[in-house]
Design goal:
434 Repressor (Amino-terminal Domain); single chain
């Protein structure tokens, strides 16, 4: 049984790459399962190396990965903004509270 699925110019989707993508996006196994429209125990089995994603799931994972790349800055800044909002009882973010490299992104 092969543990890898690959198509030209795409990632190899195995237990490690699925786990890395999921964690990079900050998703739980249930979050990823919901987006793939599969049971969450299937994601657990993939990450444990007991199952492998079908070609259909690999295509969806590829799409999710490309979307994550395209909006990487936005995803990172959203997470940072949520942390700042959690700390700020007024629920507002001031550019002064962001590191200088992030001020340029918000401008």
């Amino acid at each position: 049984m092969s543990t890898e699925k690959k198509k030209p110019d795409s990632l190899i989707w195995n237990k490690e790459t699925v786990r890395v993508l999921r964690r990079r996006l900050g998703w739980s196994k249930s979050d990823l399962a919901r987006r793939l429209r599969c049971p969450s125990d299937f994601i657990e089995n993939i990450e444990a190396g007991l199952s492998e994603p079908s070609s259909e799931y690999c295509q969806i994972l590829e799409l999710i990965s490309h979307q994550a790349e395209e909006c990487c800055d936005q995803v990172q800044n959203t997470a940072r903004a949520e942390i700042i909002l959690d700390q700020d009882t007024l629920g507002q973010i001031h550019s002064d509270s962001l590191p200088s490299d992030e001020k340029d992104i918000l401008s």
